[in-house]
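Researcher: I'd like a candidate sequence for this fold, 247 residues long. If you have to choose between options at a position, lean toward the conservative one.
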């Protein structure tokens, strides 16, 4: 028994067609889901920061202060005390990536499984790194490094590596989960054949016993654990590159 794996990119959700019927402007699934992630992050921020007091009186404010202190301490440890201004960006990128990845657990497609999304995040970080280098060393000091051709390659490789690392890990996990899910369905069919249970015509086996429970465990790893790790790795690389740019 064989099976076919068809991996496609994000779907087109809305399109504006030309007179010939060709799409001239499209909004992909990643864009729609990305805006949903932004609204989720905004809602969480509004809820946690509602009616703030000088002395915390609610669990919401305690949670908000804990998150802020954690991010600030992370920036101080991995960069320096003067880099605290980067903390909001680090927190925003982390929240966007981890929610955008974990959103697949409720049926949406992970936005980080789209190279255009991870590429956009990498470009934003690259712009911030370049700005930091110019601010700390001046335009002349920034351009001076390119006397060595290897530095040109290193400069270009930074956003490419960050984008591909995040995309590859998330998309790879999604593909592995799909393959294992189909393989478990094939294993269920093989078991039914041994037991002499015939498949339903045009439907196959409605109830695949090996697809119960096991995919959920795999999803916990590839979506929850791996998503959190990749979000953390991305912001750690961001802080490391910014710190290197200041030196």
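Model: Candidate sequence:
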């Amino acid at each position: 028994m064989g099976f076919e794996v068809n991996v496609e990119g994000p779907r087109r959700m809305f399109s504006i067609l030309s007179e010939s019927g060709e799409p001239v402007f499209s909004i992909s699934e990643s864009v729609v889901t990305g805006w949903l992630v932004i609204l989720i992050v905004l809602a969480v921020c509004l809820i946690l920061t509602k009616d703030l007091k000088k002395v915390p009186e609610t669990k919401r404010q305690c949670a908000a202060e804990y998150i802020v202190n954690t991010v600030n301490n992370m920036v101080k440890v991995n960069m320096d005390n003067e880099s605290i201004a980067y903390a909001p960006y680090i927190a925003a990128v982390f929240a966007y990536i981890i929610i955008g990845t974990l959103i697949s657990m409720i049926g949406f497609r992970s936005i980080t499984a789209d190279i255009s999304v991870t590429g956009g995040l990498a470009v934003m970080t690259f712009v911030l790194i370049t700005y930091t280098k110019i601010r700390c060393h001046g335009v002349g000091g920034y351009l001076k490094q390119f006397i060595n051709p290897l530095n040109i390659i290193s400069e270009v490789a930074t956003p490419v590596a960050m984008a591909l690392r995040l995309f590859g890990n998330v998309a790879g996990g999604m593909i592995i989960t799909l393959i294992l899910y189909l393989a478990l369905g094939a294993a269920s069919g093989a078991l039914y054949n041994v037991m002499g249970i015939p498949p339903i015509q045009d439907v196959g086996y409605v109830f695949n016993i090996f697809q119960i429970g096991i995919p959920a465990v795999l999803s916990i790893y590839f979506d929850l654990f791996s998503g959190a790790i990749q979000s953390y790795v991305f912001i750690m690389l961001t802080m490391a590159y910014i710190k290197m740019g200041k030196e």
